[in-house]
Design goal:
Blueprint: E1 24-29, H1 36-46, E2 50-54, H2 56-59, H3 62-70, E3 78-81, H4 83-92, E4 99-103, H5 106-115, E5 121-124, E6 134-135, E7 141-142, H6 144-155, E8 159-162, E9 171-172, H7 173-176
Parallel strand pairs: 1-4, 1-5, 2-3, 2-4, 5-8
Antiparallel strand pairs: 6-7, 8-9
Helix pairs in contact: 4-5, 5-6
Length: 182
């Protein structure tokens, strides 16, 4: 039975077990969340066999959630939930799945980390521009608040790098932001 419209999980993973950090093969900020670049480039590159979307906004919109889940091939499990739901998921699950984890913004990534979503490196993919943001690459626009968030994540032990495509070299966020070499 296809349960892509359920509240949290599309194809539930085992529950009531601890989830090891090394199962997250890529944690990425990408304002588009699931899209062609993620499915066609990143999933095969990191050999992910499950996608997890941690987004309060998408979790609150059942139609958007269904459409996003429907864009993924059936053989690739998708779990979409709020930041709190995904943190709870990671706190109670152990899986042999290779998870590609997606956040929509720097603030969501920091909030997710503080709630207990276990990632040690964060990839900056696409981050839209807007008020108070400046373009730092063809796909990344950041505000001073975003830079503070990356500093906070780094202080917590998370490595933050910019890497749009697997073929790109990872670039430390401080170099991208002109905050100096690392």
């Amino acid at each position: 039975m296809d349960n892509r419209g359920s509240s949290l999980s599309v194809n539930p993973l085992p529950t009531n077990l601890h989830f090891p950090q090394d199962r997250i093969v890529l944690a990425r900020i990408d304002n588009r969340l699931i899209h062609g670049q993620v499915l066609e480039a990143w999933v095969p590159f990191v050999q992910a066999d499950c996608i997890v979307v941690a987004s309060d906004e998408v979790a609150a919109k059942p139609l958007q959630k269904k459409l996003m889940a429907a864009s993924v091939p059936r053989e690739l499990p998708v779990i979409i939930g709020s930041l709190a739901e995904i943190a709870e998921f990671f706190s109670r699950n152990e899986s042999s799945r290779r998870i590609l984890l997606l956040f929509s913004s720097p603030g969501a990534a920091l909030q997710g980390y503080r709630l207990g979503i276990p990632f040690t490196e964060l990839n900056l993919g696409n981050i839209l521009g807007g008020d108070g943001k400046r373009r730092l690459s063809c796909t990344i626009c950041l505000s001073d608040d975003d830079l503070t968030i990356f500093h906070d994540l780094e202080t917590l032990g998370v490595r933050v790098v910019a890497r749009c495509l697997p073929s790109d070299e990872a670039l430390d966020w401080k170099v991208l932001a002109g905050c100096g070499a690392v």
